[in-house]
Amino acid sequence: MDNIKDWFEEVISLFRDEYQKLSEGEQKRIGNSWNFLSPCQIEVISFTDPTYQVIIITHFTWEDDLNFVIHKAVPIYDAIPHFEEILKEGRWQKELSDEDKGQFLIVDQDQTYGKIIEGFFLQIVKIVKGDVFVKHDENPQDSFGLAITKNHGFARLIKGDITKRNASSFVDGLIKEAKERTELFKKEQKPKSTENSVQGFGTYFYPPIWIDEIPQLTFREKMGVGGYLKYCKKSFDVDYNGAKVIVNVDGFIGVVLDDKETSKKILNKIMAVLLFNDISTETIRDSELENLTISDTWEIKGQSWSGQPTLRTDLGMEKWDMGPVDIALKRSKIPHNKLKAIIQQTEKVDPAFDNSLLFLLEAYTHFRHSEYLQSLFMSWLIIEGYLSEQLGELLNEKKATNKRKEKLQHRSIDYALEILNLAGKLEDKDYGSFEELKKKRDSIAHNSKKEITKNDADKCLNIAFALLKGKIGGV
User: Fold this and answer.
1) Final residue in a domain of this structure, among 153, 188, 223
2) Shared-domain flag, residues 315 and 408
3) Intra-chain end-to-end CA distance of the chain, in Å
4) In this structure, are 431 and 314 located in the same domain?
5) Alpha carbon 381 to chain centroid distance?
6) I need a surface site. Which of 50, 352, 385, 388 has the fewest CB within 10 A?
7) Model confidence over 331-371: pLDDT tens digits?
8) Is 323 within the bounds of a domain?
9) 298: Cα separation from own chain's centroid
10) In 10 A of CB 70, how many CB atoms?
11) What is d(CA 443, CA 328) in angstroms, rounded to the nearest whole number?
């Protein structure tokens, strides 16, 4: 690995010569991952026992062309402190440009190029940990890559020593790929007649489920050698109010719609109705939705996602990871006919209950995460809605004029409680429970130092659940 700099200098020289011979269309098809156009900087981080190389190609306009940073090779067991030292270097402390900030979700206030590389380093540690029991090929192999930003380069992990590749053959391969991509692009511009792809959105059920029988993985599969990707096939599809819902056996569910917000509402409504069928689930957040490509046979052909990882999105990465993993330990088994029936049941639920179902799902999700204050507030919205509805029915029974209805229905929820109880529409026991919870809710609203206990949130959630259960039911 002593000749890394010489190897890259040869590659860059050959690449730039061959690039000039390409047509304008072919030049546009040069991939971002192995692009050596000016300005180009190369940083190489090498490890031994076994051999790995981290190759970072940047196109920083604020740095000189042909700037090489070649780190001395260290044993792989020193990777973590080595990465820490590299992240402290000045070139990675530079703040992201305004254009680049829009390309990545970085929660940390320190929005630097180093934060992107840090995420890459974390993935490398995870991959290398899984490679301990895998025999390395003598030839260098690409393992994992990440775009630094759209215009500022690419980082790649190589198993082995890249300088063992013939520089000329390596460049010939890059040029050949550019020409092939150009031809493919031309073909894609022609009208397609064989298969029609449709946009959709989806994510995983969480807590995780498996449809029908859970595969019994072999020891090799549990260790991630081959993984369980081959088991992740379509289970069924079902019509849903003019759309199509697709469910895979590994618990991935997608909606064939090009509207993300509507897709999320459909999915969360399904999640909420699951609760009435004794299936635990949680609210789907916007950032957890994947973009889907759907074939005309209603199968998910492509998935893409970018966002902050959650336990739900981690399920999508798990089947690609080197093990160990045992899906039987993590997932609940659900028969496909039961889940299909629940989705069909959800389709029939009156849209008037959509908000209440979402409130219930949020309340349940918060409760699972021990967020009792938020849970109680969401549950109370359902109770308030129920009391307002009951008051409206009472006024209709009494044939109250619109003027009187408007006057009475705009009073506080205290007023509704008292009227309904005095009119015999709310039993004393229920009146007492609602009054107690209302005081809890009001005490928090007016005094932030008050606390909501688990029992408070549980009681409010159970009441809200009971109020909706009669209207929603179960399969």
Assistant:
1) 188
2) no
3) 64
4) no
5) 28
6) 352
7) 889 999 999 999 999 999 999 999 999 999 999 999 999 99
8) yes
9) 22
10) 15
11) 45
Q: Residue 193 falls within a domain, yes or no?
A: no
Q: Which domain holds residue 359?
A: 353-472
CB 305 within 8 A of CB 377: no
* Residues 50 and 174 grouped into a single domain: yes
For residues 134 and 182, membership in a common domain is answered with yes
Structure-token match 């379509």, residue found: 234
Place of tokens 């009441």: 463
Residues 378, 327 within the same domain? no
For CA atoms 453, 454, 456, 457, give the dihedral sign: positive
Instruction: Specify if 275 maps to a domain.
Output: yes
| CB-based contacts of 283, cutoff 8 Å, min separation 6 | 268, 271, 358, 361, 362, 365
C-alpha–C-alpha distance, residues 397 and 144, integer Å: 69
**Residue 202: C-alpha distances to residues 28, 240, 258 (Å):** 32, 14, 11
Is the residue at 465 inside a domain? yes
343 and 359 share one domain = no
Tens-digit pLDDT profile for the chain (475 aa)? 458 999 999 999 999 999 999 998 888 888 778 899 999 999 999 999 888 999 999 999 899 999 999 999 999 999 999 999 999 999 998 888 777 765 554 444 567 888 888 888 888 888 887 676 666 666 777 766 777 776 778 899 998 899 999 999 999 999 999 898 888 877 766 655 444 556 899 999 999 999 999 888 776 677 665 566 778 899 999 999 999 999 999 999 999 998 999 999 999 999 999 999 999 999 999 989 999 988 888 988 888 876 677 888 888 877 666 556 666 667 889 999 999 999 999 999 999 999 999 999 999 999 999 999 999 999 989 988 888 877 777 777 777 777 776 766 666 777 677 777 777 777 878 777 877 777 777 777 666 657 888 998 999 999 999 889 877 765 5
Among candidate residues 163, 188, 213, the one where a domain is terminated? 188
Burial 86-111 (b: 16+ CB within 10 A, else e): beeeebbeeebeeebeebeebeeeee
Compute the distance between CA of residue 356 and CA of residue 465 in angstroms, rounded to an integer.
Answer: 10
Environment class of residue 3 by beta-carbon count within 10 Å: exposed (0-12), middle (13-18) or buried (19+)? exposed
* Contact (Cβ atoms closer than 8 angstroms) between residue 59 and residue 37: yes
Side chain identity at residue 217, one-letter code: L
Are both 144 and 60 inside the same structural domain? Answer: yes
> Domain total for the chain?
3
